[in-house]
What we know:
The chain is of the alpha/beta class.
Amino acid sequence: METRERCGGKAISGSALIVTLVFLALFTALAVAIAASADINMTIARNRAESHQAGALAETGLLLLGQHLGGLDVPGSFDAENLHQALASYLVTTWSGSSMLDAGDIWGDAEGVHFPPITIVRGDGRSGAVNLDIVADGGAAALPVITVESTGRFGKAARNVSYRMTTLDSWTLLSRYGIASRSNVQMSGNAQVVGANEPKEGSILSATYVEMEAITLTGGVYVSGDVAVSNPQASIHKTGKVYIEGSEVYGAETVSWPTPNPALFRSYATNVITSPPAPGAVLSNIYVPANTNPTFNSDVVINGVVYIESPNQVKFNGNLTLCGLIVTDEADNPAVNTITFAGNTSVLGVENLPPGSQYDGLRDLTGTFLLAPGFGAKFTGGFTTLNGSMVASGFEFSGNAGGTIRGSVVNLADSYFIVKGDVSLRFDHQNANPNPAGLIRPYIVVCVPGSYEE
């Protein structure tokens, strides 16, 4: 019997062929699995990279807001809507030159602060976006929770981060200084600024950044407290036998300034005065219209409010006995709008007003003697005790001026503050109202430590 060989070699059995096909299938499946795994790993890596990029964008938005809003001053009278609008307005100004967004599209309302998306383009042409949101749950004086959120988006990834801010009462100006001026302060002759109860009450602050010689002391000037300038590059110039009992401070800690609210007193001024009163007249709650420019030459007694409309130049040449306070509307030029006290001035606080319904409510508005934003105040006559703080946009004390001030003297404008001659200003903070009526307490926006969340 003949046995034939297959062409090309030995005969192949059927079982070997099956094994070969099985291995071929296994290797093919393994190759497919490796390719799929590589694709999955690439997808995971891409998603992870996009997530990291989205997180970085979110962090960037949060950092931008924190850098600009931390330390911002806001009036204590602001409710949540006003607070949102103030934050929005500040950011509009701060980011006005930004190429990342149109700052004019930032706005605030009762619901929060709203932003347009911020688009950031990478060097490879891919772009991401940042969405910001700010919501306060109350007004500035309520120490609200201000939630700041930032959402970063890149590719298909989105990351959200947030932290909380709040407000803190920053009302330290009146407790730290007898004189606080946004202008240069000049003292000459034998002028003195002293504390009635402790030397620190007689401290002086100049917050000007315009005048490099922020405080000028000439002659036999004496200051019982510190002499401080806000600008670290400014100077305190001394000539003569100047004696400062406290320290000379350069780059003084930033303080918040109050916001005047003279409208609080307007409704009490019901009696219009267009000409000087008769000698010995007793006046009550008077209103001085604009451009009246009255001069009170005779001794005058006034109970309640003296409300002066700008523009005006009001002079008290005779002796003034006041049980109440002097208030002006908000003017803008202390050279044109002035109040001059040339005679002796005696002032009692509103809490001492006589009986009468016309003073109801007013008796509770204590702590202020002069509230005159936009007006310059000049004192050439003496006084015993002025019961209340004085706030104006320029001050000059000369001649026989001097006495005790229960409170502080605050100049809101970078104009002038002059104390010359034999003037002696004695500051009593111990018996002063720390919250003078008509001044809105300032608050400062701060971050809440440990409030960061992802």
